[in-house]
Amino acid sequence: MLGSFVVLYLFLGGCGAGVLLVVSLWSVARSARAASAPQSQLTDRAFCVLRGRLEAIAFLILTAAALCLLLDLGRPERFYLLFVRPTPSLISLGSFVLGACWLVAGALALADGAGWHLGCRRRRCLEAAAAALSVAMMVYTGLYMAFLEAVPLWNNPALPVLLACSSASSGLAIVLLAAPFGWEWQRLAPALERVHRIHGWVLLAELAALGTYGALAAANPFAGESLATLVAPQGLGPWFVGVFGVAGVLVPLAAEGLRRPFGAGAVSLGVEALCIVGGLILRFCLVLAGSH
What we know:
This protein is mainly alpha-helical.
């Protein structure tokens, strides 16, 4: 069964990819919008500072994911075998996706951190590659578990969608957590409102994926015992239902829904943190219940 380092690798890989996806798409969209409606220099600088910080955060999270994978290997010094002697397995494919994602995130973070001017076309190519690799990494974390047919609780077609939505939600939450600590971040308030709305839609998609996953698991007679462990009050229910389902999905979704009628204060930094904690708890609960 999956060890703690693999669970952390899957969570951190998806979470870091989520941050990289959000900042890359935001930068591409902003560049396209600036062609028709140029922004002030101070607004551009505020975004560049935030973009560099988010790229560095994504790079550090992906680095932590890679370290967890190395620690799980048992012989970290032989990690190069994953690349020079790849096997036809999802773990080998994931290593290449993670490595490519890590390199692109590092290149973008280094360019912004050092103040290098990449040029519009070169930056867009790097950001498009970052977005594509991020989606691949987010989907891979779910496919890795869903393709394990020996575990009926994981062998569920809705699981990759659920974990991809969870990764996207965690990535958006980190972006929204980091934004208020940026330079002149108030200048980005209209764009951050759009990020909040996107986060609300992602949380809604995550809730729908969770319902579909639960329905498919309940219809699988071989997954019944593991599913009971996952949701039972005397089992993992308080963590899976309470921490992930309620605190990690429903509370942030409700808070995002209250932003429009009650204002931006309806969502606190603590609510965004719940999304991240919920994503981590989701993976540990699924692994523990599947192992049972």
